[in-house]
Amino acid sequence: MNKIAVIAHDNFKPNLLEFLKDKKSWFFGREIVATGRTASFLEDGDLNLPLIHVNKGSDGGYLQIIEMIKMKEVSIVFFFRDANIVQPYHEDINQLLNTCDLENIPLSTNQAGAELLIIGKIRMEASEQAQSKFNTK
Amino acid sequence: MNIAVIAHDGTKDRLRGFIQSQLETFKNHSIVCTKSTSKIVNEFDLKVTAVESGPLGGDAQIAAQIVNNEIEAVFFLRDPLGKHPHEPDINMLLRLCDVYQVPLATNFKTAEILLNYFKNL
Known about the structure:
The structure holds 2 protein chains of 2 kinds. By secondary structure, chain A is α/β, with parallel strands linked by helices. Chain A has 6 helices and 5 strands, in the order E-H-H-E-H-E-H-E-H-E-H. The chains are: A alpha/beta, B alpha/beta.
């Protein structure tokens, strides 16, 4: 099973926590990787899902996730991005988005998109399951 | 639903195949495109409105529609390897999607999954 990458800027960390709690049954049993401070925030908020920590964004956390994407280890990226801030490592963020597009990896940069991606993903998985059951009969 | 569809030159060929494979879903929605993208979308029997092409401000026009809450989702199939004179407009469009919480797909896989949501609407 491939990893799911989750990243949230400070203003949206509570939203990401709620989002993950809300969809916990879907996330359960999947490997989740988070940048340092996002991971700590989620653990402090009693998410109770095992998380793989990489560095915080300012210490190259985005670059670590980019490497994982290039190694085909990541199946989806949820990035709750605050469009009203600019960070010194802005270039890392752009590179993350570009890598997702080059590798054709599902990516949402906001919560609205993330909600729909999950619903779409659940529907796809359900129809794939139904298909494979049908094929084995 | 109003869906904005924009494809850069490097992704336009793939867009044709993508629309073909998702035609039934696209038929249920109105599509807003930049001018040169609309030429591809118009090959199919779909409801299409075209704005200017990207370098002439089409991305900015679509961004304005986002601000006016006229767009429910954006499929921006960009070519991250291409260089674009209107790069600031592109970034503005991406940024406003996040400010106004509009679902945004910047690649085909994301677009495909999002369309599963739009299938029965």
